[in-house]
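Reopening this one. Same input as before:
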Amino acid sequence: MQDITKRLGIFPWLIIGPALAAIAVGALIQITNTWPFEPNLNRDLVRSISSENANAVDIMEVIIPESLVAFLFAIALVVLGASMPFVYLLNRRIFRRPPTAFDVSRQSLELGGWIALALMFHMNRVLSFALFVLIGVVIFLFELVILVRLHARRNLEFEDDELDEIELAAES
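Same output, byte for byte:
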C-alpha cells in the first residue's frame, strides 16, 4: 500500500484536500445561513446587527456555543483541506522523501487549529500580532519535538536491523 502512495505522489492530496475544503465551505454556508443566536434577543441588538453597528462583545454573548464551535471547526477544516497539497510539497522538498499520510494530516491539522484558535481570539478581541506569532512558535516547537522523536525512532530501528544482520553473519 505504501508503494502505491509513493507512486501516486501528490495526486491523492490534490483530491482529498480540496474535497475536505469544499465540504467545510458547505458547512460554513449552512452555519452562516441559519440564525446562530439565542431566540430571545432584544430588539436593540437586532437593529444594531442589521445596521452593522453592533458591538462584538454583545454579539459574542448571545451566540449559541454549539454554532460557534461548529464554525471554528469548519474554518479549521477549510485550512486543513487547502493546506494538504502544500504541506505535502513542503515535506517533499525539505526531507527529500515522500511524507506519510499521517505526517501530512497532522501538520495540516496543526495549521488549521492555529488559524481557528487565532480566529477565536480575534472574535474575543484578544488577538494581537505577538500572540499570533507566539501560538505559531509553540505549535512549531511541538511539531519539531515530534519530528525529532520520529527521526530518533527511525534511526534506532535502522541500528536494530544492522545489529540483527551482524548477529546473523556472526552465527553462520
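So the earlier flakiness isn't reproducible anymore. For the record, The radius of gyration is 23 Å.
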